[in-house]
Amino acid sequence: MFCQREGHICVSEVPIFSELSNDKIMEINSLVQKRVYKNGEIVFHEGDKGEFLYIIEAGLIKLFKIGKNGNEYILRLLKDGQFFGELVLFKDDELNSSAQAIGDTHICLIPIAELEKLIKTSADLSNSLLSAISSRLKQAELQLESFVLEDAIEKTLRLLLELAKENGTKNKDGIMIDLPLSRAGLASLIGISNETLSRKLTELQDAGTLDIIGQKQILLKSNFDYVD
Length: 228
Hints:
The chain is α+β, with helices and mostly antiparallel strands. It contains seven helices and twelve strands. The strands form three sheets. Strands 3, 4, 5, 6, 7 and 8 form a six-stranded antiparallel sheet that branches. A four-stranded antiparallel sheet has the order 9-10-12-11. A two-stranded antiparallel sheet has the order 1-2. A hairpin with a 5-residue loop joins strand 5 (52-66) and strand 6 (72-78). It starts with a strand and ends in a 7-residue tail after the last strand.
């Protein structure tokens, strides 16, 4: 099944494919399967055999691991146009995390075995994938550095800045953020406890930096000037 949204081929919206020729994009798109995952539905579990490259056409995906203590540790949130499951392209291995839909999520799946055949015949595609993997590794290094070097308030501010860039809506008072996860989920994402995140958000609200609106929204005030 061709995977399209409003007349656009979904693979052309992904950076690793966007610079390829139209013929190559159509060749990749001919391999695509499309699935809709309901809110909370598991796309795959850690330890499953990797069979697809997953492209998010619309929605949000949470990548996470379950620790030995049974706690969930969120690794990354991915949105429209982003992809996951790519590491199995480079080794015949099990998936090293689980993936879950946050809200109803439309995903395009490309069979790994077929994609590998295309990679062998396309230097452009191979280079794009290697570049994307390198970028992911750099992001992981920065995240680890943040965990080690930044204090709780810096981690909280960085989280808010990233959420504002990704899905914030500007209004006359600042930037409204619809939180994609619970407080506990957001805390896990930046490596602090739920209690610490709640305390830091309250401190920022008391300082006039933001307004906490219920459990699912935060308004960053117009005086918010945290710089990365």
